[in-house]
């Protein structure tokens, strides 16, 4: 029983229970793939049967007739009325079951079948001859024209009503039109701050931009993709602008559509819907697909001329893949892996789906390997039982070549997951897994679990030299994970042994107390996996059952803090978070819950009990220092201390943030309190693209790096953030820094310097994006940017909120801009400023069909060349030009008109002040607005 509980816990922890359940379901049903296939244009297919060569002489002989009703894509249709007629008379009427089958017991004769009551979109006008014992009717379908019912709720198997959405780029996307040129349509439901959506996007983009095997076509040529969110197009456009390069979103349509979200009942993100060439909803994938292969495997089912079977039936037809071999005997395994010990080896008893570990010999050395290589959704299990003395450590060597964080070797001791191994290692490695606290019998479990996605390399793990060593004989450093409780007493329903713990006032966290009374390892809690308290994680109870909400817990809502600590767990190497005073109290509250289904608080809870320790673990350190706090830098409460530049010196203190895993939310956090009020600049120093965010203690974010500053070293190649911010002395701030690429690992150095009581930043005047007016969807506008006014001296300036005029406006003619990848001076060597030509250099015609002559090239070149600002020039407001403004020109009405024609030609025509996206201005930072 213990073994089964352990395995069930493991399945829960790795979210593979669904795969196991599918594999364990038995029995088959007749499916279209078991019958002859038919071309899409043919509606009837009959399967040859043993048919009497002559009509029976006795009319009382009856036959069993089976009528199957399928979609053209091969899915069964339930609830369709099947009427059997002999001549004009109805002799039988049945509805199809979930397998699309209607069965009749009739006298042998010639009959006609008429169908009715099919879901909307299916054609039931055809009649079918029933001249054999089995008839297959495939109903043609097409996207339904017209408006969908207001209360429509789609399910898999329904035919889609046609829909049209307007994308964030103001393009029209219509389902029926997409199916004219594609084999299928995929609707991906997402939102811009969805963690798993952002995790999924790169794989989806790579898949759609990859080549279909055996062809020169891309998946995007055969499957149309529309990404749908509940957010407005302005938010979508900002997302696309931010992630355009990282995700390569240029060819993907994105749109807001609350109707589709409602019709599909979307309550989990991301969710992907597949609509086949016949307009039928054939797949609803309510989870993130986290490999290119996941996407291509899914799309492969619906493309090509041989498309017929439905995805679910195809999978069910294949059935589970059973192991073909059994694990060698315990004696053989022990002789090969532990010849000097008397260990007991065993496979998972009574589980036909558990793959064994098998033996192999290479170069005179024997090892065991997981035999489920390349078998998706499978697991291999091996138990090892050993007699251990106190301070002996269970040790083995391993070789791993698998998909990182996907195909994983789980190592269990004391019925708990102690370590996880995945990825590719350079040769054989040694694992010091578990140290015995006292003499006794210990059981260890090796479980290699494979997911449904990519297989890498050998796709297996190998084990050898499984042994016991004395701790005192090992010189290299290592950690051993331990549960804070042990010795479960089934009669009393509790653990009789537990670690002694206490709050360390110096660290602010609970530690394990050593025998000599000193503080030892950090005590840490697990919110993301099963624990000794419950086989289901605390996060699962909180997120899915809302078990710790006020309705259940006497008016106190603990879910937000549980969510916070769960997020921290998710960002730490071992999914654990150190126990501080708040968490100590929270754990005591959690274990008061009766989680048998009623979610009620146990009134008789003993505050002095150690039940809360069932959620806790710690790491014993050997030949090394105690494991440090793994949550340092992950949130405000655990932020690093920022080394801030001293305004009275020229020394720039460098800070370093180290990244060794993906973090959500982004960035490592640093806490600081300025001693002097004024303007500060944070600057990154990495060879990779970087970002930073400024936070206040309440979690609000008053500033973030946006690369809108025109710096002398920019030239379109700038990678590091440079964030300017006004800060008050004595106030607490948090700066988070991170790489632009969420997958980038390594060190990110940066510094924060004081730049003065006041400061002006030369930045883009309109860094926002084109969007539409919420009150007038047909009107395109600019999001963000400054207001403009033409001054009496003929130049444009910033118009402030109080109506006064600020900085002059400067057109950047020598650097790439937020619109063009080339400078305006370079564009002037092309036909860009010839407004008598369109984007494709075709003549622009007036209302009479005559070409328009409107070439502003010479005028722009003359203006730009003669009026470029040089360092040291005196500007109209009296300032002396620095490096930041070199290569720009002041904007008067003539230049503004030329630039307006340019942006109207290459972006959206008629957008007020669109030309400001090519310009910069000086933005003031200081305690009060700049004095005029």
Task: Label this structure with key terms.
single chain, 932 residues, alpha+beta, six-stranded mixed sheet, five-stranded mixed sheet, 16 helices, 55 strands, 16% helix, 32% strand, globular, disordered N terminus
Helix-strand category: alpha+beta
What does the average pLDDT come to? 84
Low-confidence stretches: 1-59, 309-318
Helix share, percent: 10-25%
For the CA atoms, what is the radius of gyration?
A: 34 Å
Cα separation of the termini: 81 Å
Shape: globular
The number of distinct β-strands equals: 55
Give a description of the structure.
It is a single chain. Residues 1-59 and 309-318 have low confidence and may be disordered. Strands 16, 17, 20, 22, 23 and 25 form a 6-stranded mixed β-sheet that branches. This protein has a 5-stranded mixed β-sheet with strand order 13-12-11-14-15. Helix 4 crosses helix 8 and helix 11 crosses helix 12. The radius of gyration is 34 Å and the shape is globular. It is of the alpha+beta class and 932 residues long. The longest helix is centred in the first third of the chain and has 15 residues, at 233-247. The protein contains 16 helices and 55 strands. A hairpin with a 2-residue loop joins strand 22 (408-413) and strand 23 (416-421).
